[in-house]
Amino acid sequence: MTTQANPTFPSTKPKILVARAIFPEALAKLEESFEVCSNQSDKILTPEELQKALSEVEGALVAGSERIDASALSQATNLKVIANISVGYNNFDVPAMTAAGVMATNTPDVLTDTTADFGFALLMATARRITESEHWVRGGKWDQWSIVNNPLGMDLHHSTVGIIGMGRIGQGIAKRGLGFGMKVIYHNRSHLSDADEQACGATYVSKEELLRTADHVVLVLPYTTQNHHTIGAPEIALMKPTATLINIARGGIVDDGALAQALQEGKIFAAGLDVFEGEPQVHPELLKCRNIVLAPHIASATEKTRRAMVDLAIENLCAALAGKRPPSLINAEVFST
Ligand code: DGY
């Protein structure tokens, strides 16, 4: 890690940690106002390195790779804010941050459409066997056009998409589905307002009904311990053998071992995964499946959106260090105390 402190005159600028590589322009902007300890090598800090780095700063920009819990915060006596460059914040132990008086922030809204686009792309690639077809062509297996002996997929248009987790991104996927003439059903902790349901053309159903009736199941719910293995063998057993399963939520929402077995046994048609249990490791049995599309957690990965996420995280950090309420504060009670 490098720090940009003036070696001759002690800096009076607040110290911050940038725990992962960010865009050079963003880093340069931070260096105008802060003494920056930056990990531009992008090698993920060990828990010990993170604990030490947090003990020396007033604010930090982190990503999902940094677990922020009581241990990470145990020596962080001057820390005021940790800004996640991510909308999901299952890497945060929010009660521990609140107990330590540390503001927690994330990056909602700026990635909604990009992530919904990707969810839809993964759904299309999975249902229409696009990556499998590409491997087939590259492998020299395509010798003629055929009515039946080509990779035959499942239709999206006029099918039923079932969305589990109907926040902003889930609603974005629903709206894209409407453009394809899809029937949209959803399951969520709470019902949407009538106006939001109407805007998405979506109908609330139980999880069981969704799994039984959807042609395509899309997971967009946040990871919590209650949501661990929301989809395991019993849930997959409810799905149609022609159905697809798409996970753009978080690893751990799906039991990847059970999914691999179901794909290998043809219990469902196919799956598209952007997130994995224990990523970047991928369950070895998933890698053996033909009927799967795999992506390396890139749903929000366009340059414009990643820049917007970094910019919002910086805005959150700067507001907190200036004594103002960060725009996307998670634990409001820390600000009011
Ligand atoms: C998010 O913002 O939550 C993305 O999944 C990146 O972690």
Automatic annotation (TrEMBL):
Residues 120-299 form the D-isomer specific 2-hydroxyacid dehydrogenase NAD-binding domain. One of its GO terms (cellular component) is cytosol. Residues 16-331 form the D-isomer specific 2-hydroxyacid dehydrogenase catalytic domain. Keywords: Oxidoreductase. PANTHER family: 2-HYDROXYACID DEHYDROGENASE-RELATED, GLYOXYLATE_HYDROXYPYRUVATE REDUCTASE B. Belongs to the D-isomer specific 2-hydroxyacid dehydrogenase family. This is D-glycerate dehydrogenase. It comes from Polynucleobacter aenigmaticus.
